[in-house]
Amino acid sequence: MSSATPADPQKKRVQRRRHYLMCKPTHFEVVYAINPWMDPEKPVDTATAVLQWEGLRDLYLELGHTVDLIEPIVGLPDMVYAANGATVVDGKVLGASFRNTERQAEGTAYLDWFRENGYTERHDPRYVNEGEGDFLVTETFVLAGYGFRSDERSHQEAQAFFGRPVISLELVDPRYYHLDTALAVLDGDEIMYHPEAFAPGSRAVLRTLFPDAVEVTAADAAVFGLNAVSDGLNVVLPEAATGLAEQLRARGFNPIGADLSELLKGGGSVKCCTLEIRH
Ligand code: ARG
Q1: Active-site amino acid positions
Q2: Edge-to-edge strands, sheet with 19-22
Q3: Which of 28, 61, 73, 58 lies closest to 46, judged by CA?
Q4: pTM here?
Q5: Is the CB of 178 within 6 Å of ligand 1?
Q6: What is the architecture, at CATH level 2, of domain 19-276?
Q7: Domain residue limits, the chain
Q8: 146-183 pLDDT, tens per residue?
Q9: 272 in ligand 1 pocket by Cβ < 6 Å?
């Protein structure tokens, strides 16, 4: 486990090249509401969503990462939130099973992509789990959210499949309905999170396991600052999370602000659009 001193600007941060899967928001719109951020009455500019998403993809490529693409499907407007499509650890693919009927077809679409691209170790989910929306992978653990979307029983399913200790964390604030809206992995076993998004017991667990975590304010959480993607050095996060960017800089990270305002209308940002493929 990491025992880095909390705010050591001298700590040398090292980037590791990553492999991501993304889905262009060609068919993105908000026509149903399954989280408090979504309002079908509010207009969405799909062309702007595409431009913002392309900015994120280009940024990953500039940083030296590999980005694979899955073909967007008409009628699945939330498919852009690729993080929900699966969880991949050690090349093993745990398929997703969505709570809401509106998104159910995405589970098969993503598993098909992994089959077609040669990932032979795949697991068809028995219980509801919304991929990396609720499963976040640190060096030692799989952190697993429940309370709004993923079924708690999917946590044991993930532990059995991956052979990694899964830590269940209860989410209590409907704005932070997925774990990846309340917590992000920075590097190794170093994380950042918004304590108030978790039930008291889960908060205590986080404090015990990650005493050096970055604690994120209500203001930065409310602009989706925790929906971030780190490569160990660069942390891509919503640009409005300025206080958090400062905290990260003080720790030696390189925060990079991204504008994904159109995709926020669906209740997602940087991390939601990014599924990491771990080999
Ligand atoms: N509209 C989508 C939903 O509510 C947003 C998903 C955001 N994805 C995420 N990884 N948090 O399911």
Answers
A1: 178, 272
A2: 66-69, 19-22, 275-276
A3: 28
A4: 0.95
A5: yes
A6: 5-stranded Propeller (3.75)
A7: 19-276
A8: 999 999 999 999 999 999 999 999 999 999 999 999 99
A9: yes
